[in-house]
Design goal:
Number of helices of chain B: 15
Order of helices and strands of chain B: HHEHEEHEHEHEEHEHEHEHEHHEHHHE
Largest sheet of chain B: 7 strands, parallel
Helix content of chain A: 25-40%
Shape of chain A: globular
Keywords (chain A): Acyltransferase, Transferase
Order of helices and strands of chain A: HHEEHEHEHEHHHHHEEEHEHEHHHHEE
Family (chain A): Belongs to the thiolase-like superfamily. Thiolase family.
GO cellular component, one term (chain A): cytosol
InterPro entries (chain A): 3-ketoacyl-CoA_Thiolase (IPR050521), Thiolase (IPR002155), Thiolase-like (IPR016039), Thiolase_AS (IPR020610), Thiolase_C (IPR020617), Thiolase_N (IPR020616)
Protein name (chain A): Acetyl-CoA acetyltransferase
Distance between the termini of chain B: 25 Å
CATH superfamily of the largest domain in chain B: NAD(P)-binding Rossmann-like Domain
Strand order of the largest sheet of chain B: 9-8-7-10-11-12-13
Strand content of chain B: 15-25%
Oligomer: heterodimer
Structural class of chain A: alpha+beta
CATH topology of one domain in chain A: Peroxisomal Thiolase, Chain A, domain 1
Strand content of chain A: 15-25%
CATH superfamily of one domain in chain A: Thiolase/Chalcone synthase
Chain lengths: ~475, ~450
């Protein structure tokens, strides 16, 4: 975990007499000491943690978002030994959320080992929620508002809220306002039998009624992404993830939860041949051959992640070794409603804008992480960057961005293998990428840069640059 | 795991019944408390040697009521017998018979402690053959010295009411006022040794510090405990923390949830690490040094069982037990000894087992690994002494834990009664013995294996 022990050893470590007790005394829960740091400070990823991701209906079926987020935070607190610390902020969120979880992150902090005087807030940006929390915490650090914070996210597809129909909801609200028996009876006057069916959340887009998979099927068709290419990407994801577990990569990135010690969607023996046997599930009504299967699409998943982001000063004071700097991020959105662009193509726009701002090309990057909502999402984005037409017409570039070296892409597996608990995915990718960057920088002796790209419902996407420190 | 039989025979009716039927009557042991961690009653110092006088002055220094004759006292908390100067078997009688007259005056939770010198022969948990400065003994001298061992172990078996009997062996060139002797005396009097019975600790040199704060004997030390997520390891972590150390708990990634709860409770970093990782020693050092500047204490506690009768043993079961229980310890210790980032008095305690001493049906692999620990500790002792440190082992007997809870009920009842204290020990009992061995009070104790087994009849 500490690539840089010499550095930290030379600083003045808290040696000697009961440093645990000393630390406790130094940071009482009601401390009024300011949390802010220097404006312009670098925001660095110090450590990350997630619980193993589980397919919906598995070991976490009875765990709430709050249970899982608390576990992810507590694992991170333990890994970094910061129990009892008051942090500047904790930002997290969930995409599928019960109305009672209006203060999900704050409630999770209160249940965690952190100082209860740690403020927290919820963020919601669909599947980019985790990325947005990282960006938000990093920005606060850069502005000098806070010195340290946790960014994260959680989602449960098993413990999803079930709402009553619109008709029944109106009737119940009317009933609540009713004073007389007659008024109470009248409240149900307009109720129809169909109103009694519960309303279950779906991944359908409100403005188009199409599911995310059907939207992606349109994009897949447009870019002519083949079944073989999708299955190859899916098999690589499983194989990379399994290899990373095998070499102990996740030893300090994952903490078991509810009896699960590894992502249970992982199929280490996954091959293109095996994936080739699955029947397509999306795009079956389109003119071209349907190519998207359960194997090359992410399953519904439960899980949570958390990332500790601090100023370098705070990390040094706490004898923690930074893994990578959060350099910058960029959000983009596309008009998918009119069919002008594919639902999940926003990263194709966010990435070039971010790279241009830092005078970087795709080929300058040492690692590229593109969230695998579907295998074809990744492949469509890569195809777009290789397309002179797309890059000229849509991005206004003279030349295409070019191709991404596959050896640099999703090197430790991504969502097709781990699963995708919507808001938890950003934290998963940021933590793993930061660790990989630090390891490669140490190995090569050269600074390393990584790009992360995550697409989201509503035609949005967030791109981020991390750099080794 | 609660011992319902123990609770029953300590209640009114159960007590009478057990007495009438001649059933075992285990008592709740006197365990460590921060205030008044001494036996209640006077301390009787017997024997004529100079070591007795030294011990008496140490006892007086702890504000104990010290007497030199059995007839002077009614309530005896402890008896200390100085046999350090015995030259022939005839020299044992006087003090033995004076102790006899005091046995009935011993209060519950009392102590019998002998001071004597080592001799080759019966193993005493010490690497006695390799002690520096060992004198060439006459057969008569050796007989007298070994006589103490047999006598002490018999006394331990005769005692009831949670009274224990243990011995301190002073190497020939170790003076009675060596810190290790005073430290061992303090330990055997203390509730920290509640489940140590019929055992000997050898003080091999005059290193150490007798004046440690007995409530916080490892204050300010930076410690690492492997296998810390549950059972004995979790208790060792908590006890060391309560005794003043900053403890980093280590366990395999699969045990990370329990590990992180413990770490957060103690406000320390958790390290998810498989001890069989070739880099384990370096990773442990890196974390301790980066967070706390150095590493002082290590407890090699991680261990597994893969029990099978030898006829049914397979390669995987054999190899995994050897890899986790002994090879990982060897490798990590080697890394630590090669490092210049250890504190000035590094101390290691390794978990052995009475199965390693006596063997155990169905545990060929486990016993091989645990006996291996005992051998490795003895051989590592001179190496770590060069760095100012010590390495010792504790060998737990039947300890009430998740591991022993899996033993079938009838066999478990028998196993936990087959010792002089007629009960299983607790993880706390093991943790307290480890805490003592990691303290500077035990600085003169090196290369030893201390059994924490209530004088288990197995492999005594």
């Amino acid at each position: 975990m500490s690539e840089n022990t010499q550095n930290t050893a030379q600083s003045t470590p808290a040696t000697g007499t009961g440093s645990g007790a000393a630390k406790r005394a130094a940071a009482p829960a009601t401390s009024s000491a300011p949390q802010g740091g220097a404006k312009g400070a670098r925001a660095v990823v110090v450590a990350g943690n997630r619980i193993p991701f589980s397919r919906a209906g598995g070991p976490y079926a009875n765990a709430s978002n709050q249970d899982m987020l608390t576990a992810a935070i507590d694992g991170l607190v333990a890994r970094t030994g910061i129990a009892g610390e008051r942090l500047g902020a904790v930002a997290a969120g969930a995409v599928i959320k019960h109305s009672r979880d209006f203060n999900l992150t704050r409630e999770s902090v209160l249940g965690s080992a952190l100082d209860p005087a740690t403020p927290a807030y919820d963020v919601q940006m669909a599947c980019a929620t985790g990325m947005e929390t990282v960006s938000s915490i990093a920005n606060k650090i850069r502005l000098g508002q806070i010195q340290a914070g946790i960014a994260g996210g959680v989602d449960s597809s098993s413990d999803a809220p079930i709402a009553v129909s619109e008709g029944l909801r109106r009737a119940l609200l009317k009933l609540q306002r009713a004073k007389t028996t007659a008024q109470k009876l009248k409240a149900f006057k307009d109720l129809r039998p169909g109103d009694l069916a519960p309303s279950v959340p779906s991944s359908g887009e409100p403005r188009t009624g199409l599911s995310m998979g059907e939207h992606q099927a349109l994009t897949t068709q447009k870019w002519g992404i083949t079944r073989e290419a999708q299955d190859e990407l899916a098999a690589a994801s499983h194989q990379h993830l399994a290899a990373a577990y095998e070499r102990g990569f996740f030893d300090d990135l994952v903490t078991p939860f509810n009896g699960l010690t590894k992502d249970n969607n992982m199929r280490p023996d996954s091959t293109v041949e095996k994936l080739g046997g699955l029947n397509p599930v999306f795009g079956k009504k389109l003119s071209s051959e349907a190519t998207m299967t359960a194997g090359n699409s992410t399953p519904l998943t439960d899980g949570a992640s958390a990332v500790l982001i601090t100023s370098e000063e705070w990390a040094g004071e706490h004898h923690l070794t930074p893994l990578a700097e959060v350099v910058d991020s960029e959000a983009a959105a596309v008009d998918f409603v009119t069919g002008n662009e594919g639902l999940l193509m926003a990263p194709a726009y966010a990435v070039p804008r971010l790279l241009a701002r830092h005078d970087l090309t795709l080929q300058d990057l040492d690692l590229v992480e593109i969230h695998e909502a579907f295998a074809s999402t990744v492949l469509s984005i890569l195809a777009a960057w290789e397309s002179p037409e797309f890059c000229k017409d849509r991005l206004g570039l003279d030349a295409p961005l070019g191709s991404v070296d596959r050896a640099k892409l999703n090197v430790n597996g991504s969502s097709l293998a781990t699963g995708h608990p919507f808001a938890a995915t950003g934290g998963r990718i940021v933590a793993s990428t930061a660790k990989e960057l630090a390891a490669r920088a140490k190995e090569t002796g050269k600074p390393q840069t990584a790009l992360i790209s995550v697409c989201a419902a509503g035609g949005q996407g967030v791109a981020m640059l991390l750099r080794s420190v | 795991m609660t011992d319902t039989y123990l609770d029953m025979v300590n209640s009114g009716l159960g007590k009478q019944l057990a007495g009438k039927l001649g059933l075992p009557r285990p008592v709740t042991l006197r365990r460590f408390t921060a205030d008044g961690d001494f036996p209640s009653g006077s301390v009787l110092v017997l024997g004529r040697g100079a070591a007795g006088d030294v011990a008496a002055s140490a006892l007086l220094g702890w504000d104990l009521d010290v007497r030199r004759h059995a007839q002077d006292v009614d309530r005896v908390g402890a008896v200390v017998i100085d046999y350090t100067e015995v030259e022939s078997p005839a020299d044992l009688a006087d003090a033995a018979l004076e102790l006899a007259s005091a046995v009935r005056k011993l209060r519950p939770g009392g102590r019998v402690i002998t001071l004597s010198r080592p001799a080759p022969g019966i193993g005493t948990g010490a690497a006695s053959g390799t002690l520096p400065g060992a004198r060439q003994l006459t057969p008569s001298q050796a007989a007298a010295r070994q006589g103490v061992v047999g006598m002490l172990r018999s006394i331990a078996q005769e005692m009831r009411g949670g009274v224990t009997a243990n011995g301190i062996l002073l190497a020939d060139d170790v003076a009675a006022d060596a810190p290790g002797v005073t430290g061992a005396l303090r330990f055997f009097l203390s509730g920290r040794s509640a489940y140590v019975d019929g055992q000997f600790l050898t003080v091999g040199d005059d290193r150490g510090d007798a004046d440690v704060d007995w409530v916080h004997p490892v204050a300010g030390k930076v410690a690492v405990v492997t296998g810390a997520a549950r059972g004995i390891g979790a208790q060792v972590t908590r006890t060391l923390a309560a005794s003043g150390a900053t403890v980093i708990p280590v366990d395999v990634p699969a045990a990370g949830d329990a590990l992180s709860k413990l770490a957060n409770e103690l406000r320390v970093p958790a390290l998810q690490l498989d001890v069989t990782d070739p880099q384990a020693g370096q990773k442990i050092l890196d974390l301790a040094v980066s967070r706390y500047g150095r590493l002082d204490l290590v407890v090699h506690n991680a261990g597994i069982t893969r029990d099978k009768m030898l006829a049914n043993m397979d390669q995987a079961k054999w190899d995994s037990v050897i890899a986790v229980n002994i090879e990982s310890q060897l490798r990590i210790t080697e890394t630590l000894l090669a490092s210049d980032q250890l504190g000035p008095a590094p101390r290691i305690v390794c978990l052995a087992s009475t199965s390693g001493v006596a063997g155990n049906r169905g545990q060929t692999n486990y016993a091989a690994s645990k006996a291996g620990v005992i051998g490795a500790v003895a051989a590592t002792a001179p190496l770590i002494a060069e760095k100012g440190g010590t390495i010792n082992a504790v060998a737990p007997g039947f300890i009430e834990s998740d591991m022993t809870a899996k033993i079938p009920a009838a066999r478990r009842q028998i196993s936990r009664r087959l010792n002089s204290l007629q009960q299983g020990g607790t993880p706390e009992d093991v943790a307290q013995a480890i805490t003592f061995l990691l303290s500077d009070a035990a600085g003169g104790i090196n290369g030893q294996t201390l059994r924490v087994c209530g004088q288990s009849l197995v492999g005594a």
